Amino acid sequence: MRRAKGYQDLDENVGDSRIPSTSMPPPQEIEMASVSVVPDDTFTVTQAVNALGFGWFQVKLSLYTGLCWMADSMEMTILSILSPALHCEWNISKYQQALTTTIVFMGMMLSSTFWGNISDRYGRKTALSMCGVLLFYYGLLSSIAPNFLWLLFLRGLVGFAIGCVPQSVTLYAEFLPTKQRAKCVVLLDCFWALGACLEVALALVVMPTLGVHWLLALSTVPLLIFALICPWLPESARFHVASGQPDKALATLEQIAQDNGRPMLLGRLVCDDSVGIGQRGRLKHLLIPQLRNTSLLLWVIWMSCAFCYYGLVLMTTELFEADSGAGEKSCAADCRPLQTTDYMDLLWTTLAEFPGIFATIFIIEKFGRKKTMASQFVIFAVCVCVLIYNGNRTFLTCVLFLARGIIAGLFQAAYVYTPEVYPTALRSTAVGACSGVARLGAMITPYVAQVLLKNSITIATAVYSVAALAAAAACLALPIETKGREMKDTVTATT
């Protein structure tokens, strides 16, 4: 309509008898004038997503992505249950227990940048579809591993596949309007918390009767469901535009408009190419001058976050086991399966993630991403220090409850900030790199939470406190605050 009105005004002015004939331009100038009057009706993916709002399309995507996160959470939570069970069944040492956890995170670390590159080159949907199938396949094979070495090998492959899961956040965030992005990404952690609670509840029922191998097998059911629904996942419209496929991007945006019951934007879909990196990013582009400080600081934050989060998860079972077996120093104490009270306390501490999520939603929108992450790291450091003064089981459970809620919200705040601060062509690569560095911290943490903790609780908690405080300083040093900031398509826009 605007385009038609522009021509109409021009025609009326040209044909108006009140305009002197000397003022009428030559025919060629009339044609050029008509072109200049017509507005350039173009829009970007960001403008379209913001205009189409949050609706049924995003609800469906929330469920798809949430299922992926729930399955990932179950595979992670099982690590704190698997080690003590294998210790009793196969008589493995403490270092072998730690290796059972480390091998998973090693696979995740080695594959994170690989999956990020696949996601940026071939699409988020393609990478997640491959991830779902591989996760289910290797997870199921883990349940029938005949010995410890085979289990290590298969759990390493499970970790390799899990390295792709953070790309689901990239896909999800790219379809969220700016105003709802932080809340929705943080709320996505509800599925993670739900998966962790479901795994603990499943272990409570399965472990006393069927054992750890059946637990491994039944834990793959959400993975199977996710693999089956992957064909219905939408591909990122931002990816299609950045990869030179605007027709497919436009079709996806039209689907959003249809699902959300909103009118589709009129005009031409455009995208500013990512300056200096072409259409697809590479790992080295994360260290270009405009992004170097942000990338290095985020790597410190992600590594500390994973180190602290998974350390707390592993410490929880170790502290409960030590509390129940205090005074026993024989071999019988070395092989003590988790009891019903242990699972119940583990379930309570896992439930702490829910209030931590909702608190993070409020704080991150009010005070911004940087201050939220920094304050949560400081509170976590204080909570971990308090564990030294373990008086009784109730006190221990309360402190672990608070610390678990804080670190869970913190991890999700990092997932909010990272996709926001990088351009489209580098977004998946950046999230994959951050996730890979995080797994380095997760690889180290079993030797602190499961080995060093046995020798000295004071030293182990001090290590986590120092790591958290260092990460808090890194949060405050980040050069960009992304609160209220639209996701960018260009490198220059991130500076």
Structural overview:
This protein is mostly helical and 495 residues long. The protein has helices at 2-15, 27-37, 45-52, 56-90, 94-122, 124-142, 148-162, 167-173, 178-187, 189-206, 212-218, 221-229, 237-242, 246-260, 292-324, 331-334, 340-351, 353-367, 369-386, 393-421, 424-455, 457-477, and strands at 42-43, 268-269. A two-stranded parallel sheet has the order 1-2. The chain is globular, with a radius of gyration of 26 Å. The model is unreliable at 1-39, 273-279 and 326-333 (pLDDT under 50).
Number of helices: 22
Helix content: over 70%
Biggest sheet record: 2 strands, parallel
The H-and-E topology, N to C, reads as HHEHHHHHHHHHHHHEHHHHHHHH
Radius of gyration: 26 Å
Number of strands: 2
Low-confidence stretches: 1-39, 273-279, 326-333
Q: Please, what is the average pLDDT?
A: 79
Q: Walk across the major sheet and give the strand order.
A: 1-2
Q: Which structural class best describes the helix and strand composition?
A: mainly alpha
Net shape: globular
